[in-house]
Amino acid sequence: MSGAREVNRDRPCVLLVEDEAAQRQMLSYNLEADGYQVVMAEDGEEALLVAAETSPDVIVLDWMMPKVSGIEVCRQLKTRAETRGVPIIMLSARSEEVDRVRGLETGADDYVVKPYSVVELMARVRAQLRRTRAAAVGQRLEFGDIVLDSETHRVIRAEQPLKLGPTEFRLMATFMEKPGRVWSREQLLDRVWGRDIYVDSRTVDVHIGRLRKALCRHGGDDPLRTVRGVGYALG
């Protein structure tokens, strides 16, 4: 296997799928220098396994690979419920419009033609992460009278600072990135704690309770909604 599998949820995780070692090393170096954690795969089969194991936040995927092509990897990932929402940036030497269209229609969220500018590719990774993990790339998030500043690691409600532990902060960031979305306990465990750590699903309820208490400490309605039999949502 090509990369470490332990994922720290405090930093965005990029799955890099590239069969050329030199390209893999160069991209990994630049992604890590930008503050991302990188897990890697050398072929399509390994990519499908690593994606299932690590739940990456974005996937950089080469089209031409041994065993399973990038286009087939993309198709399979977009049919799986657990990876359907993960942005995929397709890398390809195929520059014809028909190839670009095929890649996008298969489910790729972006398409970059080789040879490419590393600076541009890093910008495209950041753009995809702003859609899925805005807090992790330094965005200021707002919902009603609640403001979450990921750079200063502060949450303010009605101009009153809230005291949140690290887990409660990650929970709040997850909710504020996608207001209205219902998160199951299992999804929150994967997103906030990570798959490599065993935590009982009831632990989620405990931390949700702490978060609710902190959010309502200075008054105001509880912004978190319990969806019976499903999970939790903001708003």
Brief descriptors of the model:
235 residues; alpha/beta; Rossmann fold; Arc Repressor Mutant, subunit A; 2 domains; four-stranded antiparallel sheet; 8 helices; elongated
Report on the structure:
The structure is a single chain. The protein has about 240 residues and is of the alpha/beta class. The protein has 2 domains: about 15-130, Response regulator (Rossmann fold), CATH 3.40.50; about 135-235, Winged helix-like DNA-binding domain superfamily/Winged helix DNA-binding domain (Arc Repressor Mutant, subunit A), CATH 1.10.10. The chain is built from 8 helices and 12 strands. The protein has helices at about 20-35, 45-55, 70-80, 95-105, 120-130, 165-175, 185-195, 200-215, and strands at about 15, 35-40, 60, 90, 110-115, 140-145, 145-150, 155, 160, 185, 225, 230-235. Strands 2-1-3-4-5 form a 5-stranded parallel sheet, sandwiched between helices. It has a 4-stranded antiparallel sheet with strand order 6-7-8-9, covered by helices on one side. Strands 10-12-11 form a 3-stranded antiparallel sheet.
- Protein structure class: alpha/beta
The end-to-end distance, rounded to whole angstroms, is 42 Å
Identify the CATH class of the largest domain.
Alpha Beta
Q: Which shape, going by the Cα principal axes?
A: elongated
Percent helix, as a range, is 40-55%
Query: What's the SSE pattern?
Result: EHEHEHEHEHEEEEHEHHEE
Q: Could you say how many structural domains there are in total?
A: 2
Strand content: 15-25%
Tally the helices.
8
**CATH fold-level name of the largest domain:** Rossmann fold
What are the segments in which pLDDT stays under 50 over at least 5 consecutive residues?
none
Gross CATH architecture of the largest domain: 3-Layer(aba) Sandwich
Taking the sheet with the most strands, its summary is: 5 strands, parallel
CATH-wise, what's the superfamily of the largest domain?
Answer: Response regulator
Query: Largest beta sheet: what is the strand line-up?
Result: 2-1-3-4-5
What is the number of E strands? 12
Rg value: 19 Å
Mean of residue pLDDT values: 87
